[in-house]
Amino acid sequence: MNNQENTNEQQWKLLVLLLKEIAIDKHGTGWQTHLADKTKFAQSNISRMFGLKYTPSLKNYLIIAKALDVNFFFESKDSDTDLNQCFERAMEALGRRPDKLPKN
Asked: How far apart are CA 32 and CA 74, in angstroms?
């Protein structure tokens, strides 16, 4: 996999993990069931997508974002808002913040 493909792979995973953070925050342990009910997607598909087993289409990503009442906007990386904190947790989960990973 070349560098551009790897970057693209990491970017869609980041977007999915951001939605997962929001879903868990809003709906707790029943977040997958809630999304399945709101989107009419099978719960197993929700599980596979949020388990990063496959790349969701933009259309499906937006359907899920709408079901979670997510707004999209841009802000400075330096901002200390809840959104940026959520973003940083997702980046850490992907291993994109090596300085914050546990040391061996």
From this structure: 27
Indicate the pTM of the whole model.
0.66
User: DSSP code of 63?
Assistant: H
Distance CA 97, CA 55 (A): 22
pLDDT in the model for residue 75: 66
CA–CA distance, 71 with 60 (Å, rounded to integer): 15
Q: Is 91:97 a contact under the CB 8 Å cutoff? A: yes
| Predicted confidence (pLDDT) per residue in 68-85, tens digit | 998 776 667 677 778 778
Return d(Cα 16, Cα 11) in angstroms, integer: 9
The span from the CA of 67 to the CA of 65, in Å, is 5
Between CA 75 and CA 60 the distance in angstroms is: 24
